[in-house]
Amino acid sequence: MDDLYREVIIEHYKNPSYRGTLDPHDISFEDENPLCGDHIRIDLRVSPEGKVTEAAFSGHGCAISQASADLLLESVVGKTIEEVKALTNQDVLDNLGIELGPVRLKCALLPLKVLKAGAYGLTKADDTLIGMEE
Amino acid sequence: MEQITASTLDVERIREDFPILKRDVKPGVKLVYLDSTATSQKPASVLKIMDDYYHRSNANIHRGVHTLAEEATAAYEDARQKIAKFINSHFPEEIIFTRNATESINLVAYTWARANLKAGDVIILTEMEHHSNLVPWHMLAAERSVRLEFIPVAADGLLDQVAYKKLLELQPRLVAFTHMSNVLGTITPAKEMIELAHQAGALALLDGAQSVPHFAVDVQELGVDFLAFSGHKMCGPTGIGVLYGRKALLEAMPPFMGGGDMIRRVYLRSFSPNEVPHKFEAGTPAIAEAIGLGAAVDYLSAIGMDQIAAHEREITTYALENLNEIPGLHILGPEAKFKGGVVSFSMDGLHPHDVAQVLDGYGIAVRAGHHCAMPLHDKYNLPATTRASFYLYNTLSEVNLLVKGLYKVKDLFGE
What we know:
The complex is a heterodimer of chains A (134) and B (415). Chain A has 134 residues and is α+β, with helices and mostly antiparallel strands. In chain A, 40% of the residues lie in helices and 19% in strands. Chain A is built from five helices and four strands; from the N terminus they run H-E-E-E-H-H-H-H-E. Chain A has helices spanning 7-14, 63-76, 81-85, 89-96, 102-119, and strands spanning 27-32, 39-46, 52-60, 130-131. Chain A is globular, with a radius of gyration of 15 Å. In chain B, helix 7 links the parallel strand 7 and strand 8. A seven-stranded mixed beta sheet of chain B has the order 4-10-9-8-7-5-6, sandwiched between helices. A four-stranded antiparallel beta sheet of chain B has the order 13-14-17-16, with helices on one face. In chain B, strands 1-2 form a two-stranded antiparallel ribbon. Chain B is built from 14 helices and 17 strands. Chain B is α/β, with parallel strands linked by helices. In chain B, helix 11 packs parallel to helix 14 (396-413). Chain B is globular and about 70 Å long. Chain B has two domains: 11-30 and 305-413, Aspartate Aminotransferase, domain 1, CATH 3.90.1150.10; 47-302, Type I PLP-dependent aspartate aminotransferase-like (Major domain) (Aspartate Aminotransferase, domain 2). The longest helix of chain B has 20 residues, at 67-86. The interface between A and B is medium-sized, with 17 and 25 residues. Strand 4 (130-131) of chain A pairs antiparallel with strand 12 (270-273) of chain B.
């Protein structure tokens, strides 16, 4: 438990540097983890040369997912969109510096999933509704 | 398993792994288990891992964050990866856990077929299918008026490939066929048939209930779209089976059963489905059984599927030679080189139930009946047959006991 909640994770969870929304933005994507309901939106501003100049995340989730988002965006500012597309799950785990079981891994990787979906130009999560209209 | 050589298994050593093979059927009468096509026996490693799971890690999977839930989730997902590797699927999420091959085929019939097929669309099946690959399509045909066509079984016990090519001119949407008949033992030329199906614009579903347990099945090499198989026929427990599906197909398919875990988001009046494979795994799955199947796959892989297939070929060839010498005994299906370890036969003047009953008196377990393939038995004008089937733990001396037992049956009935 102590290992999981390393100081860096608590710090990024309590005092995130990249929390918020960007309006206007060049890229925005949001998605959720159906297992626990964590929800994350990531907004990016991108320079004409294709570099990320500003990044912000919003939504709600556990300390792992929020800290993962904050650390991820910290690493993303200054990268090109192509570099963002090339980010891997291992990069996220390296950011966090912890080992995670399969359940919490989903929490940690949600921000990367959202970020990459945005980088690849998706605008809307695939949440086709089945049933009656609300 | 270090004693295994290129062509032979150390069967005595393997038999040590299966505790049930040591039991007597009645005092002094050893079990001779020749019914693995119905269900295989389970090695101690499979029994132990399931027992350990319930003793140590039992918890529901996927949502819990406590240690037990993490362990259970990791073990369940680890089993999925092992099975993916076992059939060489490209992604672990192409492995959907079901109850058995029957449920796997029903899943395709209820989701892909109902979403894609309309009245008049053609599905090609074969005359040698198990009921599990017939009845789901009957039910679909009744509901959607799709047209079912059947590749005939030729006199040599093989599928009539000329007739198949002719049927493909009907532009079928699906070709669904067995990889190995559970009655005839016929191993079908799946790769070629799948290629032909694709050329005709159809998808291909393979019933691997008898192939995956007995020889190496590689979904990428076969190019198959769907593969269904059961855990309990491959040294795993009952209650767990697999549907392999190509990821793009699975993603485009509507969900099967509704409930927990298969959802992404639920509102009061609607829901959005989860990603594959979870989209198709509603409710708490058979966790211990999935883990048990993972251990079964480890067990089979350690021995080697090619070694198992070679052993079964040897034992089947031997059985065919010896059974053929029994007067009045007629074996169904093709010659040994086209056949897996299944020998179904009829005996003049004897009903299969009587044959099986008398054999049981000698501890020999065979199956008697239509083996869930009534249309195939209709074709041969037989209400039922007796079936002996072999697996990695069977020996040539067990075949000798079967032959001896069959002569005793004949003596008893004066045939």
